[in-house]
Amino acid sequence: MNKEVNKEPHQGAKACSPGYHRSQAAKGVIRLRESNLWKPTNYGHSRILDVIRKLSGNKRPNLLNNPTDYLVVREDWDDNSVINKHETSVYTDASVTKTGTGIGIYSEALNIQKSYRLKNGCRAIQAEICAIGEAVRLIRASGKPLGNVIIYSDSQAALKSIASKSVRSKVVMSCQEALSWIRGDGVGLRWVPGHRNVVGNTGADGLAKLGARESGAEVIDSPLPPISSLKDAIEKITLEKQKEIWQNRNDCGIARNLWPKIDNSRTGQLLKHKKNLVRIAAGVITGNCAVGVNLQKWKITNDNYCRECNEEEETIEHLLCRCPAIVNRRFQIMGQEFLDGLEDAAEMEINKIMNFARNWKCFRSEVVKKG
């Protein structure tokens, strides 16, 4: 715990939040599971992955040590000597957008113009590798004699992964297996620079973008999501659970009104300030400060009237929203003379709340005992 808290203020707060350690434990189990070191049971802490049981990883521990024949070829495209007029060119590309992930395969010689939408979330490099694998399947399905077929991709990272002798990714293994089907048929891989107006690459790029944005495109399940996406899923599930717990609590009324949702950005803004200002903000948000109602409850004073106006009970809501004695300061700092309720302050910048509250008498260093 100390190691986590000592990193950054907002990271320290996160380390103390509900569910954080469960999230970290789940991520550790993911690593153990994908290394075949995890022995799942149906009881106790071993059930920590139940919430994401349906998610699958993308790693396998056994290394593929057999040499591959799919070497990356870098050519000088400037003199237009790369493409041989006797070869059959097939172009692949991938597109990862907010709306989805698509791959495209284009070949004028084989009359291929295919667009696919990937069902599972994945990285761009996985999509690029998947596109090459699908290209191999389409080449085989074309039924045409295979001579000098070159599959072009604008992803050097994908080509290097496929050419690697040491492979752990199931996506790469699947692509290598597909390539092994036509290994003896003169099929090779080659890099093509992207966005250089190479006709085939432009065609594949357009098909990939079509697959990414069109919900009606043909859907394929591969590739499987990487471990990083599983960790993201754990973070998302943990956050949703924390939100549910926070919103369904029956206590912490002031805090739930002023801080209605878990907001890491707002927390980060708060923790950038000096300790005395953070103390003020925490006192306002939780209501755990020397306001009149608390002083009376703690038997420090005999009454709970507002020390600013002497008209109502001194509560956080009264001071923040409607105390008439500090109306000018409220308007100057918060832009409104009065607030309808604590909910109005929930969307305000935390700086405004701190600056408005820092001069309240309940936050002054000495508490004057009332007779």
TrEMBL record:
Domain RNase H type-1: 84-213
Domain of life: Eukaryota
Positions of region (Disordered): 1-20
Reaction catalyzed: Endonucleolytic cleavage to 5'-phosphomonoester
Broad class of enzyme this protein falls into: hydrolase
Keywords for this protein: Endonuclease, Hydrolase, Metal-binding, Nuclease
InterPro entries: RNase_H (IPR050092), RNaseH-like_sf (IPR012337), RNaseH_domain (IPR002156), RNaseH_sf (IPR036397), RVT-Znf (IPR026960)
GO biological process terms held by the UniProt record: DNA replication, removal of RNA primer
Ranges annotated as biased composition (Basic and acidic residues): 1-11
EC number per UniProt: 3.1.26.4
Pfam families: RNase_H (PF00075), zf-RVT (PF13966)
GO MF annotations, alphabetized: metal ion binding; nucleic acid binding; RNA-DNA hybrid ribonuclease activity
CDD domains hit by this protein: Rnase_HI_RT_non_LTR (cd09276)
PANTHER family per record: RIBONUCLEASE H1
Similarity section: Belongs to the RNase H family.
Protein name: ribonuclease H
